[in-house]
């Protein structure tokens, strides 16, 4: 009987040891990235950006942040900010369908008082009738780190990023980042404003166009189309169709003049030389390559490259 008691006691001790070891199971600290890298999900259900990030722009000393990511945990969510790339959010939970999503893709700078103040991350995951977007404010700090996260309005997020790269008084000025040509445009705009040739509103419009040309701001799709149409209208014979139309119009006029001369008995001599035949010259224009029709250096003064500086508002 005593032997059976000893066997039972040994079995109980072994079972207790198993439960003790099970109690020491390592807690998973990373979020359940069900939507990010779960191998059981099809690829289409994982995090997929809707667009590619904009090209890197702005102060050159900030370019070293590209390729790095900085995280911040707020409540049950972990936020990751990857400068010039994206912002993501991961729910810190053990639920099988924990949320992981994109809060925005690098889009453009926010510029205030001619100074870079933040980075806009747009076109994130869908949120009801719009896409999520995030503004990342840059402030001076001892280390590179995310310091604060909030959601001022539904699906619009605000992150504060501290960095020693923003501590110098001139570190976030826009003017030094521009090319020499764009600086000249800015100087001319300043002078026009000083001479009262343009209004404050016109000055801001010119600055916005300069920032867009520099790639610091993204022009709207409608404005891009408008710019392309304006450029096409400033060119002569930009399409073969227009050339054909003008050719027919000129040919009709030449025929009218010939008939008029014949009607009045005026003898005219047709020069058949290739280089003096009007009809042949017109034919050459019509059959010319599109690259020639789009304008050459001889017609640069017709393109209005600096036309915006002649406008007044």
TrEMBL record:
Which GO cellular component terms, listed alphabetically, does the Swiss-Prot or TrEMBL entry include? Golgi apparatus
User: Where does the MRH domain lie?
Assistant: 67-169
This protein's UniProt keywords: Coiled coil, Disulfide bond, Signal
Q: Secretion signal: which residues?
A: 1-17
Cross-referenced InterPro entries: DMAP1-bd (IPR010506), Gtb1-like (IPR039794), Man6P_isomerase_rcpt-bd_dom_sf (IPR009011), MRH_dom (IPR044865), OS9-like_dom (IPR012913)
Pfam families named in the record: PRKCSH (PF07915)
Query: What residue stretches are annotated with the DMAP1-binding domain?
Result: 174-278
Q: Which residues form a coiled coil?
A: 218-260
Record protein name field: N-acetylglucosamine-1-phosphotransferase subunit gamma
The species this protein was found in:
Mauremys mutica
């Amino acid at each position: 009987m005593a032997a059976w008691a000893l066997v039972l006691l040994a079995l109980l001790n072994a079972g207790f040891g198993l439960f003790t070891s099970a109690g020491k199971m390592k807690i998973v600290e990373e979020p359940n990235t069900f939507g990010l890298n779960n191998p059981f999900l099809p690829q289409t259900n994982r995090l997929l950006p809707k667009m590619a990030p904009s090209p890197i722009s702005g102060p050159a000393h900030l370019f070293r942040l590209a390729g790095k990511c900085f995280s911040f945990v707020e409540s049950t969510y972990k936020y990751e900010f990857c400068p010039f790339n994206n912002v993501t959010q991961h729910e810190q939970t053990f639920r099988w369908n924990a949320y992981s999503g994109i809060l925005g893709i690098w889009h453009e700078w926010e510029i205030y008082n001619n100074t870079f103040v933040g980075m806009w991350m747009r076109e994130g995951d869908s949120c009801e009738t719009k896409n999520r977007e995030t503004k990342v404010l840059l402030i001076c700090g001892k280390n590179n780190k995310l310091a604060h996260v909030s959601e001022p309005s539904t699906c619009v997020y605000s992150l504060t990023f501290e960095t020693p790269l923003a501590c110098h008084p001139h570190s976030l000025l826009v003017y030094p980042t521009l090319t020499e040509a764009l600086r000249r445009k800015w100087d001319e705009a300043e002078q026009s404003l000083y001479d009262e040739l343009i209004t404050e509103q016109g000055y801001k419009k010119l600055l916005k166009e300069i920032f867009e040309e520099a790639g610091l701001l993204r022009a709207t799709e409608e404005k891009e189309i408008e710019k392309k149409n304006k450029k096409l209208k400033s060119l002569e014979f930009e399409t073969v169709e227009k050339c054909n139309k003008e050719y027919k119009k000129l040919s009709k006029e030449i025929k009218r003049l010939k008939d008029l001369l014949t009607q009045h008995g005026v003898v005219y001599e047709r020069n058949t030389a290739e280089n003096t035949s009007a009809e042949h010259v017109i034919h050459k224009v019509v059959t010319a390559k599109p690259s020639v029709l789009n304008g050459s250096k001889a017609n640069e003064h017709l393109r209005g490259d600096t036309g915006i500086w002649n406008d007044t508002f």
